Each structure stands twice: as C-alpha cells, then as structure tokens.
Amino acid sequence: MSAARRIAVVSAGLSTPSSTRMLADRLGAAVVAELAERGIPASVDAFELRDYAHDITNAMLTGFAPAGLESMINTVVSADAVIAVTPIFSTSYSGLFKSFVDVLDTESLIGTPVLIGATAGTPRHSLAIDYAIRPLFAYLHADAVSTGVFAASADWGGTGDQVATLPARIKKGAAELADAIARRDTATGSDPYDPATYLNGADSFAQLLGGTKQE
Fold it and tell me: How far apart are CA 103 and CA 73, in angstroms?
C-alpha cells in the first residue's frame, strides 16, 4: 500500500456556519475519497483562518508568527497538498486570506499541489478564481490544479441544474488534486529552519565552522 498522505485545508470564511467552510470540508472529503480509489490513504488537517486572525495581524506587524500560527503554518507547508478556499469580497479574495498568504515564506509552497475554491453570493464572481486567486499561488510557485471550484449561494439552497453541477465540480477538482498528489513523493514534513536541516547535523553555527559536532 502507498504511504499515507496528508492534506491541509485552509478556509477563510468569516461566519459560523460558513459556506466557505462547507465547501472546504466537501473538497477535503472528496480528495480523500479519490485517493482511496487510487489505493492511497490520506488524512486532512483543517484550519479556519478566522481563528488565527489576530495572530496573522501580529505576524504582519512584527515579522514573527505567534506560536499557534507558527504551528499551523508548519502543518500547512509540510503537507502533501493544500486545499485553499476563500469567500469573494469586492470581486477578489478576502483580506484575511491575502494576509495569511502574505505571512507565508515565498518558498514554502514550491511545487505543492493546490486545489483552489471560492464562494460568493452570485455566480458572477466565479472568474475571481482565475484572475485573482490563481496568480497568488503562481507567485508562490505552487502547483495549482487546472480546475478551481466555485460555489454561489444558489448552489447550496437553490434548485435545478446549478445545484446538480456543484458535486460534479467538486469531484473534478478533487480528482485532479488526487492525481497531482499521486505523482509526487510523500512530503517529508521536515522543517527548513531546523538546524538539523541546514547545519549538516551540527547543533550550532559555531560547531559547523569549527568542524565539531555535538554527539
């Protein structure tokens, strides 16, 4: 059996309950199901950015992430794939979502498969996935799959063809992310800021320069 994979789900919804979180949960479950069909076990770590809003602001002001936010970021950037879902405000991603992206290291998601999702009151905002959100992940050199999943209010409570298409869009995006995960090696989860990572096993720069290592 293939090694287990870990998916980080980041939701930027502001209300409780949140349609953004609903979409994020459905996407996470769909990706796990798609991976299971490929014989790959997977688990999901889900995070609501509203729970970290103050820490994100502090990180932007000070340049240092508080412990809780740092732990969350480490979990996200070390995952095998990321699902990122934001509400659309004023034809673009939410300020909270953008602030979270701003506190990430610009090299932390290089090559990471990403499935983008978005929610809004009207289908008119669906294009925001491609003209606003996708460029963010292109800047981070993440590997965003071609299908982005958008859900308008009518997708949850309306009737007719529009409601019927949301599960199909979720399945398509989930299948693409599952394929991208299957093509990659399992994430190591190593911390690039751990001295063991960048000091060749030395416990300090002094030991590295002095040619000695703590046994």
Answer: 9
- pLDDT by residue (tens digit) across 158-182? 555 555 589 999 999 999 999 999 9
Domain count, the chain: 2
pLDDT of 112-125, one tens digit each?
999 999 999 888 88
Same domain for 14 and 97, yes or no, is: yes
Residues 140 and 204 in one domain: no
CA distances from 112 to 85, 109, 115, 116, 153 (A): 16, 5, 10, 12, 30
The predicted model scores a pTM of 0.84
CATH code, 37: 3.40.50.360
Looking at the structure, tell me whether residues 119 and 207 fall in a common domain: no
